[in-house]
Amino acid sequence: MLLDAKNVSKAFGSFLAVSGADLAVDEHEIIGLIGPNGAGKSTFFNCLAGETMPTTGRIVFAGEDVTRAGPAVHARAGIGRTFQVPITFEDMTVLENVMVGAFLRRPHRNDARDHARRIVELTGLQPEQRPRSLGTPGRKRLEIARVLATDPRLLLLDESLAGLTPTELQAAIALVRRIHDMGITIVIVEHIMEVIMTLTKRVLVFNQGHVIASGTPESVVRQDAVIEAYLGRAHRRQQDQKSV
Amino acid sequence: MKSIFSPRRRIALLAVALLLFPVVFSGAFARDIGVAFLLAAISASAWNIVGGYAGQVSVGHSMFFGIGAYMPLLFYSLFGWSPIAGIPVGIVLSIALAVVIGMPTFRLTGHYFSMATIAVAELIRIFVGTWDFVGAAVGLQGPATARGWWDLTFRSELPYYYIFLAVLGIVLATTAFIERRRFGFYLRAIKASERAARSLGVPVRRTKMQALALSAAFTSVAGSLYAAKTGFIDPDSGFGILVSVQMVIVAALGGAGMLFGPLLGALILIPLQIATNTWFGGGGSGLTYILYGGIIVVIARFEPGGLFELWYRVVPERWRRAYAT
């Protein structure tokens, strides 16, 4: 098992954002986290990335307890993440942005630059472009490129495919598949059900800080609790119409 | 075919111009301006490492400048030693202070960090001003007449000019070196977003601390050079807030976080400052504050990236390429 998060809770004062969430991830899996806004997905995600320290629970990654470790330690251990609102290094070119990630395991500039060039090529970006000229889809792609350059074993994608046009979405799905084919395990937070249904084999559904369902995407979307809390009755009608 | 404006040749031209300046302008006043320009460029380039590249805007760098300035004259006053003996002690003390100051203040960000550095520098200034061991408010004096070159007391401006130029060369070469290495990339990433930098495994606090220590060491050397040149130091000229503010403005005017930004800033600001002091005499010292305040407002409002960034934005890329290739 690559990641084992057990009984993870996070409280902000008296507000319990995440309550006793469990997540076990095997190597080479793609797992989806879904749920309505404010359900606790991002907080749980931040706990996995080391940005937020859980109030209770334990997170073990590749046999190492990383529960109390910060994000830099997580990155060194092999957990990479993107942000819901992309954060790029504006004064650097695309290549330089990716080199920051590449330097994690390649201290020498030439090695880091060569590795960064390969990643930039893989993600279809232009190395000399500035982030401000990319637009949101390009910036999200740059974030993915930057974290890929750290050679992660587990990639946490936080709504990296949101806000894309249908064409861009297909290209992004293809990119995530390519990343997965490289042997990288992926946990993805996403609202777009097409992405979840296409990419993932297992889904966790969050609502009000609790995991209310888990299983294959096909089984999860039929569960009453999930439809009630997240997908809505319109989704049920669509399902019924399809079955007719 | 490379034109004379390729980056390497531009640097070579700059070096030749700086080397020849005191030869071409042999008057004492011109050389004095040259020395003041170099000192401002050294201080601002030292500040630039942590303030420009890492984006940690310290407004208390006078604490390192003051330590560097006091140590050579303190060693001379106490033991009659050459002021040179105090320079490494100043560097070591400045690095130690940087570590002590950095540990709590690097938990702060943005304006809070700047305010904390001002507070520490002011506390040190007040403390030094009341401490008899270091001359209290009167300050310390260096050798009136030189016993030898090692007293760093010269009648002519020329030796100071070339010593300062050599130190500036070392500071810029070091900055250029780190700019291209992992350390330089990490500093720029931290400046852009500490959160994103951490997520990529950047040891943010350690990197900031190393930048502050390096910056403090060079600022301390600048202070030592100042003390050697003037032969006198007191709490205001060593630890005064204007010392820190000048470093910030010189770097910001030219372009903070750019290798030659502080040089450009010093090239504009120092002659301007000397001109106001010359035109208005003693009454001109207050004008320096007004000038600094005005420049801060203009930079913050219209060009936070400094004049180099303005150049990059205004001059079309094809022109710049034509110059560079």
The CATH C-level class name of chain B: Mainly Alpha
| CATH-level-4 superfamily name of chain A | P-loop containing nucleotide triphosphate hydrolases
**Helix/strand class of chain B:** mainly alpha
Number of helices of chain B: 15
How is the largest sheet of chain A built, in terms of strand order? 6-7-8-3-9-10
* pLDDT averaged over residues of chain A: 92
Distance between the termini of chain B: 7 Å
Compute the separation of the termini of chain A in Å.
41 Å
Level of helix content of chain A?
Answer: 40-55%
Task: Tell me about the largest β-sheet of chain A.
Answer: 6 strands, mixed
Structural class by SSE content of chain A: alpha/beta
The proportion of residues in beta strands of chain A is 15-25%
Number of strands of chain A: 10
So, CATH architecture of chain B?
Orthogonal Bundle
CATH topology of chain B: ABC transporter involved in vitamin B12 uptake, BtuC
Query: How would the global form of chain B be characterised?
Result: globular
Oligomer: heterodimer
What is the overall pLDDT average of chain B? 90
Draw up the topology in text:
The complex is a heterodimer of chains A (244) and B (325).
Chain A: E1 3-12, E2 15-25, E3 30-34, H1 41-49, E4 56-61, E5 64-65, H2 71-77, E6 79-81, H3 94-102, H4 109-122, H5 135-148, E7 154-158, H6 166-181, E8 185-189, H7 193-199, E9 202-207, E10 210-215, H8 217-220, H9 224-231, H10 233-243
Parallel strand pairs in A: 3-8, 3-9, 6-7, 7-8
Antiparallel strand pairs in A: 1-2, 1-4, 4-5, 9-10
Helix pairs in contact in A: 3-4, 3-5, 4-5
Chain B: H1 7-24, H2 28-53, H3 62-79, H4 86-105, H5 110-129, E1 140-141, H6 158-179, H7 182-192, H8 194-199, H9 204-230, E2 232-233, H10 235-239, H11 241-254, H12 261-280, H13 284-302, H14 306-314, H15 317-324
Antiparallel strand pairs in B: 1-2
Helix pairs in contact in B: 2-6, 2-9, 2-11, 2-12, 3-4, 3-9, 4-9, 6-7, 6-9, 7-9, 11-12, 11-13, 11-14, 12-13
